[in-house]
Amino acid sequence: MDKQHTQMNDSHPETNMPVGYPPQYPPTAFQGPPGYAGYPGPQVGYPPPPAGYPGPGPAGFPVPNQPVYNQPGGAAGVPWMPAPPTPLNCPPGLEYLSQIDQILIHQQIELLEVLIGFETNNKYEIKNSFGQRVYFAAEDTDCCTRNCCGPSRPFTLRIIDNMGREVMTLERPLRCSSCCCPCCLQEIEIQAPPGVPVGYVTQTWHPCLPKFTIQNEKREDVLKLSGPCVVCSCCGDVDFEIKSLDEQNVVGKISKHWTGILREAFTDADNFGIQFPLDLDVKMKAVMIGACFLIDFMFFESSGNQEQRSGVW
């Protein structure tokens, strides 16, 4: 028995050391496989991460701020915004809005519209201030309605997130397009999730200024929205101010950004920016997105021989 024990110790010299002396290297059982920390051997089958890629987080947690690529509805190579924790009483999919105070909306250029003037369904990328895509929006309107009614057309706009889920639906009914008639003015309904209204944007009659009222799901007035007398994007931005109900305090704005003489002259693809308080209810932030699309169709959308409107008339 003593001879067998001696042979076992000889086969494992790292354990055959005098008491009080530390081993010269860790036991074989604790060295780990090749590629383990401190081992010079290469890690087979795993290329090194690209430059600038964030390191791993704590065990069991995802990599922080890891970009997500090639999801439904988006162009390849454009990162999506990582999903934040879901706040209480937040409709599914709107948790992205809880951590941002600015949104950029970029309309995609449609080649068919540029070449022959045939109106196609509008598509938009909705991004945060870092350029990460938050949502993708696509119009769902039939061909006859788009080309006969032009910018005044009723439409359904579907907004999806990075998982391909439809998180918001915008419904614009057919309404009067002139301020001469103080009834049946423009309106858009915002649903989140689809089928559940969270707010409305209704046009308020005014002889000279474009004015709107932001309402919650109970049609209670929450905020006001007003634009300039002449809504014309000529070498500059056009701002629509978001105000308190008494219109004494400005809490944000919706801006139509100038995109350059060529793009403005030959396309109707517009860029918008929305600024609102960070602590604003996510439902009202979603309603602001709906207000931006309503403003786009009312004042900056052109179709065929119909030019964009320069004011409420």
UniProtKB/TrEMBL annotation:
Polar residues bias locations: 1-10
Function: May mediate accelerated ATP-independent bidirectional transbilayer migration of phospholipids upon binding calcium ions that results in a loss of phospholipid asymmetry in the plasma membrane.
Taxonomy of the source species: Eukaryota, Metazoa, Chordata, Craniata, Vertebrata
Name recorded for this polypeptide: Phospholipid scramblase
Annotated GO MF terms: phospholipid scramblase activity
Subcellular location: Membrane
Pfam families referenced in this protein's UniProt entry, alphabetically: Scramblase
Family note: Belongs to the phospholipid scramblase family.
InterPro entries membership: Scramblase
Native organism: Saimiri boliviensis boliviensis
Cofactor(s) required for function per UniProt: Ca(2+)
Main location: membrane
